[in-house]
Each structure stands twice: as structure tokens, then as C-alpha cells.
Amino acid sequence: MNLTDRVVVVTGGAGGIGAALVRRFVAEGAAAVVVADLAADAARAVAESAGPQAHGVGLDVTDEDQVRALVDDTERQYGRIDLFCANAGVATGGGIEVDDAGWDRAWRVNVLSHVYAARAVLPAMLARGGGHLLMTCSAAGVLTAVGDAAYTATKHASVGFAEWLAITYRDRGVRVHALCPQGVDTPMLADGLAAGHLGAKVIAASGVVLTPDQVADAVIAGLAEERFLILPHPEVADYARRRA
Ligand code: NAD
Fold first, then answer.
1. Could you tell me where the beta strands, DSSP code E, fall in 123-225?
2. Ligand 1 shell residues, CB under 6 Å
3. What is the pTM of this model?
4. What residues are annotated to the active site?
5. How far apart are CA 183 and CA 181, in angstroms?
6. pLDDT value at 244 more than 60
7. Are 81 and 47 in contact, with CB atoms under 8 Å apart?
8. CA–centroid distance, residue 88 to ligand 1 (Å)
9. 43 CB burial (10 A radius; 0-12, 13-18, 19+)
10. Does ipTM top 0.85?
């Protein structure tokens, strides 16, 4: 897949990785990039700085009606969605002491939102004969590194769901990609360090923190090669190869 003339949606588009994806998709020639985020004003600011092809909207990815409305509005306005990036995520620090509300939030944002995205975009993609879904998962979804319990568990679930989608729909033209970065220099990592999250400390200590633009480079390459697992960190790719 290349991005020329494509219609793209990026959730969590106001965040570190999301904003880098938005800027790169515009630079690669996308016809339209919808920047959707719980932080609506920040989404609009990212869109404004990315260029006239981008526009920002408020979205809570854990509300299925809102996800469906975003997809319907985008298809009405631009005719189709070629690539939907389910990128919003939350880092829940802690271990088994995290309460049910914390586990529920991690589950709803990191996993259930991907189900809502798939339900909303797949019917039109299948009717048109194809499309692309990029699920931002995490290296915490393919490695069992020391980290935070709910984040590790929900990111493993997100990789599992992405793989299920990829296998189930590949014969009908839909390509699914699981983006699994490790440490990336974004507000999520900074907030995790400030809050003393173990996962953030392990990442910072590993010395392999990438910039969001480096992640965007890996996404462009992964989409071009139609890869399922997109692993921007070489050491994660080595681990995945050894495990496979
Ligand atoms: P970030 O905190 O900068 O961005 C996350 C964005 O998601 C924010 O703009 C936030 O407002 C948005 N968001 C959160 N809940 C939402 C909701 N309910 N509805 C809509 N938007 C919501 O973090 P980031 O590092 O850019 O994270 C992007 C993705 O990358 C996440 O899925 C994260 O788990 C994943 N990831 C990050 C790292 C890292 O080290 N930063 C590593 C691996 C994976």
C-alpha cells in the first residue's frame, strides 16, 4: 500500500505516535486524513499544522456509537476509508493491585475499541473488495517483558485480535497490520515515568527509545511491504524471529 490519494483515519491522532502518523500520511500524498482524539482541541491543532488535507475531530474510541458516526461521516464526506489506524491507547501502571476500574479502562481503550473500529469499517471495505487496518498494539503484546500487568495483558489481547482479523479477512482483500513499538518518546512514556510505572522505567533503562517519526518510517515501510507485524525496534524484531 502507498498513501497517495488515500483516505485515512487516525485515532489517538493528537498523541505522540498518532500526530507523527498524521504528518507522514499527509506528506506521502494522502487525499484526506481524519485526526480523531478524545482531546478534540489538540486533534484540531495537529490537523491544522499537518496541512489542509487533515481535519481534527473529537472522538471517544470506547463509545461504539461515536466510532460508527465517525466512520459514516468520513465515508459520506470522502467516499471511502482506505486505512483506519486504531492507535489510541492508555498505559495503566501497576500489577495485580490495580482495581477493576483500571483493568476495565485498559481493556476498553486498548482492545474493545479495536473491535468497534473493525465492526464499523469492515462492511464498506468488504463491499469495495478491500482496505487496510493498522492496530497500534505494543512490543508489550509480543514480548513478556517485565512491565505493568493490565497494559501487558491488554496489548497481548490486541495482537491476538489483530491476528484473528488478518487471518479471517485476508482472502477478501483486507490487510491488517499490528504495530508493535517498544519505547517511543511521547507523552505516554513521559507520564508513565512521572507516575513511576514499571513498564516506563524498564523502557527508559533499555536505552532504545525511538522518536514518533521513526515509528512513522516503520509504518510506511510496513504498509508498503504489506507486513502483519510492524516492529520498529530491531531488538523486538529479533526476538519475534527467534520465537517464530
Ligand atoms: P500518547 O499518550 O501520546 O497518545 C495517546 C492518545 O490517545 C492521546 O492523544 C489520548 O488523548 C488518546 N486517547 C486516549 N484514550 C482515548 C479515547 N478513549 N478515545 C480517543 N482517544 C483517546 O501515547 P503514544 O505513545 O502516542 O501512544 C499511541 C499508541 O502507541 C498507544 O496505543 C500506545 O499504547 C502505543 N504504544 C506506545 C509506546 C510508547 O513507548 N510511547 C510503546 C508501545 C506502544
1. 131-136, 174-179
2. 11-12, 14-18, 37-39, 59-62, 87-90, 109, 136, 138, 181, 183-184, 186-189, 203
3. 0.97
4. 151
5. 6
6. no
7. no
8. 5
9. buried
10. yes
